[in-house]
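Q: Got a minute? One more chain.
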Amino acid sequence: MNNLTTIAGHFIDPKTIQDIAPLGNGLINDTYKIIVDGAPKYVLQRINNAIFTDVEMLQNNIEAVTSHIRKKYENQGIKNVNRRVLHFLKAETGKSYVEEESQYWRVMDFIANSYTYVRGRHAGIRLLCGALIRRF
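A: Always. Here it is, folded:
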């Protein structure tokens, strides 16, 4: 955990971190939950830069999309925007990622009681995904 705490410390005060534990079963990136005050508060993710070779462009694109969706939802008066749109923390560099030993990392807010679907096995899930994309 020490190395992960050091990496997370670029984004949050490392003294507040109680634990960092694996989260999910990612196929591309390595993902961890950061425990603060006895509950998951943040997600630490190693970006697989063998697949995403231009991490700066990746993060710039994600930030542009999430910012667009966030503003659109806020203008529509949609509630719980923080539960609907990812929020990436800035490192002390001002960027939403850091490079540590040739690996790239980012931290985002943890969204409690949320799920990630690796594969939409049921038609209902696929329809919901299509509806969300259409809204964008």
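A: Helices lie at 2-8, 55-75, 81-84, 123-135.
Q: Perfect, thanks.
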